[in-house]
Design a protein that fits this description.
Distance between the termini: 49 Å
Strand content: 5-15%
Radius of gyration: 17 Å
Oligomer: single chain
Largest sheet: 3 strands, antiparallel
Order of helices and strands: EHEEHHH
Number of strands: 3
Number of helices: 4
Structural class: mainly alpha
Length: 138
């Protein structure tokens, strides 16, 4: 039987669930996305009772962001949908676009990552980026 939980090596501490306060566990994509065989070999941290999870950087056990429930995942999707066209349309390099976004949000560039944002920050991203998209006709 194929393992669906990552074998334990010396690993970083599993992220604590911001919703219930319990440690998450590392699982593979078959647990998170049973209908997506193309994601079975990806790793995630999951808090099953809260339906919160976060993916890991490829080839690592390092989370891509913070554990997110359904509402926060939807907010992050909306934030990326508003932000990504600004750099994907070649109007700016990704790094420059994040620097611009950090300035708009009044945060340090090193803290400007949609994967780490809360719902309110994601909503602000949508507002800021939508206005720029409209101005530039992107």
């Amino acid at each position: 039987m194929e393992s669906q939980i990552m074998p334990k090596n010396p690993t970083p501490t599993e992220p604590v669930c911001p919703y219930c306060g319990h440690a998450s566990r590392q699982v593979n994509g078959k647990i998170i996305y049973p209908h997506r065989p193309d994601l079975y070999d990806k790793w995630f941290y999951q808090c099953a009772p809260c339906e919160a999870y976060v993916g890991c950087h490829p080839g690592t056990e390092r989370p891509l962001g913070r554990l997110a429930n359904v509402e926060l995942r939807q907010a992050k999707i909306a934030a990326h949908a508003a932000f990504d066209p600004l750099w994907q349309s070649r109007h700016a390099h990704r790094r420059d676009a994040y620097a611009w976004l950090a300035e708009q949000l009044g945060i340090a560039v090193k803290h400007c990552h949609i994967g780490q944002f809360d719902i309110d920050q994601c909503r602000r991203v949508v507002v800021v980026c939508t206005s720029v998209t409209i101005e530039r006709g992107i």
